[in-house]
Write a sequence for this structure.
């Protein structure tokens, strides 16, 4: 019988190869789910939609994701990561192709919901691959690298989708995430090896099959804090492109490059906080510090934008970096606390709450921006990480020292 601790004796190349494949799977999901936001200018131009109405289309794949995260997580707990990643991303490619070929905006929205439902397989399963193959003292760094996949995927979408949509239309732009998901599905089937874990009989004797939600509120508190931290993250992600174009008079290409740069820096920030968490032997204390930083930057963004300071663009970039940083810390903490037989469902719960919030942010904050202003929206978004700070259960780590 092999246990997760046996990952210390596995060939190093295999661990990093699994990490690379897990990153690719998550990046494919990000290009699909988050890349739709870059269709906003084309949707407004070609369909005459308001920001609130475009927010509904943008939220469609996110809505789909939140319906199936726990289901895919349970399947990963039972059948393994390789099967779940291959099936989910393959179905996502088919659904996105349907959206690209759809004859009307309502049908595009329906297919995008279905694509999100399928693509959510990547969230729990790709994280389990990383947590399963790396030992605790390197897991924060590994998960930080894995979490790069989200901003890298968004950076790829920012460089390509606005230009394709602007010149060829929404349908052609959606062929990109469809193709990437198909390639990622094939790569997962061919290359993923499920990480080792105890046999179920031995796991039952060790208590690893017990429901971790019944013995403590720690997981629930991490989930709740993560939901609050998603609000500023998705506010910036969804409307940064529109803000640069409409409020700062940037052209679409320059705005896309700016967002690409901020996403690449955000990816580096996730690695840095993951490495930091390994060094201090904690995930939740660094998470609280990063939450406070994100709150401060969103408030500064609201002020600098209100007074039309040029530095607001730099603050926007800093805020986009800071607001993505907590995700890897929370994800790692949830997987470690839940254990190898509950991490799929726990990560599914973690992401479900986040995607519920993420699906609400585009239409709600689009309405706020349309009725009031960008500075007010940024200021409101800053309140959510402020509320998350006391919710993060740092006392658990203090008690364990």
């Amino acid at each position: 019988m092999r246990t997760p601790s046996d990952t210390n004796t596995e060939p190093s190349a295999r661990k990093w190869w699994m990490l690379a494949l897990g990153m690719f799977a998550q990046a494919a999901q990000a290009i699909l789910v988050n890349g739709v936001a870059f269709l906003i200018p084309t949707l407004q131009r070609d369909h005459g939609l308001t920001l609130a109405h475009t927010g509904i289309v943008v939220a469609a794949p996110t809505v789909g994701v939140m319906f199936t995260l726990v289901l895919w997580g349970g399947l990963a707990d039972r059948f393994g990561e390789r099967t779940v990643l291959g099936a989910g991303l393959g179905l996502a490619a088919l659904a996105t192709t349907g959206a690209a070929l759809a004859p009307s905006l309502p049908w595009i929205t329906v297919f995008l919901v279905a694509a999100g439902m399928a693509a959510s397989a990547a969230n729990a399963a790709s994280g389990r691959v990383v947590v399963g193959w790396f030992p605790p003292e390197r897991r924060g760094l590994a998960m930080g690298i894995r979490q790069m996949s989200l901003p890298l995927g968004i950076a790829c979408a920012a460089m390509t989708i606005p230009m394709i949509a602007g010149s060829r239309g929404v349908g052609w732009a959606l062929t990109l995430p469809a193709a990437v998901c198909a390639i990622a599905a094939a790569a997962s089937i061919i290359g993923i090896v499920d990480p080792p874990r105890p046999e179920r009989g031995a796991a039952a004797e060790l208590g690893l099959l017990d429901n971790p939600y019944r013995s403590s509120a720690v997981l629930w508190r991490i989930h709740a804090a993560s939901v609050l931290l998603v609000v500023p993250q998705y506010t910036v992600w969804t409307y940064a492109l529109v803000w640069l174009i409409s409020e700062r008079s940037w052209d679409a290409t320059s705005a896309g490059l700016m967002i690409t740069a901020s996403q690449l820096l955000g990816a580096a920030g996730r690695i840095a906080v993951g490495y930091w968490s390994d060094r201090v032997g904690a995930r939740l204390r660094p998470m609280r510090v990063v939450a406070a930083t994100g709150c401060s930057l969103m408030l500064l963004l609201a002020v600098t934008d209100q007074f039309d300071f040029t530095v607001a663009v730099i603050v926007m970039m800093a805020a986009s970096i800071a607001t993505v940083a907590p995700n890897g810390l929370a994800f790692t903490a949830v997987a470690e606390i839940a254990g190898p037989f509950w991490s799929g469902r726990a990560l599914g719960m973690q992401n479900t709450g986040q995607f519920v919030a993420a699906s609400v942010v585009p239409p709600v904050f689009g309405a706020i921006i349309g009725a009031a202003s960008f500075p007010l929206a940024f200021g409101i978004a800053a309140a959510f990480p402020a509320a998350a700070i006391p919710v993060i259960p740092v006392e658990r780590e203090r008690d364990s020292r």
Observations:
- The two ends are 31 Å apart (CA to CA).
- Residues 1-9 have pLDDT under 50 and may be disordered.
- The CA atoms of residues 212 and 338 lie 6 Å apart.
